[in-house]
Specification:
mainly alpha, DNA polymerase, domain 1, 2 domains, elongated
């Protein structure tokens, strides 16, 4: 919900007799921390926090979605991927290492500063094409594409994209290396 406080040196038990104003701190609909000041009493500070809580509670889903789009849509891919990565707690150690390697060696160099809301299927296609041109192995191409697709699907589910940017594009072409066996 939020908190109220005074920024003076008086101990909390003396706040009711202290002449300094109360301040409140809370998170707005986009998740940003906001601070307001100028509350003469603890009751007025708590009253304002309750107003904010009620307004948040009554916010229609469309407004909440708009707030998510505002927050995450402008976020750089690198920051979004780091946020997404912290949610991947279920991964085995070897899978986590592989994910971190794909992020560090392929996804972040390609997209680190790109805003999340600027992805479309052409951006994804260009990424795949560059991997093919630079000779990235087909298994690595496939893994990097899959991780990018997973991250972008997560963003799509938050509402950042009207359409998933991976749809409509082609994934990497798998070119298996000949194994030396002849078939008769």
């Amino acid at each position: 919900m939020g908190s109220f406080f005074k920024s003076c040196d008086h101990p909390r038990i003396r706040w009711s007799k202290c002449p300094h104003d109360y301040k409140i701190r809370y998170r707005n609909l986009t998740g940003r921390q906001v601070q307001e000041s100028g509350f003469a009493t603890q009751e007025s500070a708590l009253g304002r926090l309750n107003e904010i809580f009620e307004a948040k509670r009554k916010t229609p889903r469309a407004q909440a979605k708009a707030a998510r789009i505002e927050k995450y849509g402008q976020m750089p891919f690198g920051q979004y991927a780091a946020h997404w990565r912290t949610g991947q707690r279920h991964l085995a150690e070897s899978s986590a290492r592989r994910l971190d390697s794909l992020l560090a060696n392929h996804l972040l160099p390609a997209f680190n500063g790109r805003r999340m809301n600027s992805f479309d299927h052409k951006v994804v296609d260009e990424f795949v094409r560059k991997m093919e041109e630079t000779g990235v192995g087909s298994a690595t191409q496939s893994n990097a594409f899959d991780k990018l697709a997973t991250i972008l699907l997560d963003a799509h589910n938050l509402g950042i994209f009207e359409h998933n940017p991976v749809r409509g594009g082609a994934g990497p072409a798998l070119h298996p290396k000949p194994c030396g066996h002849t078939h008769s």
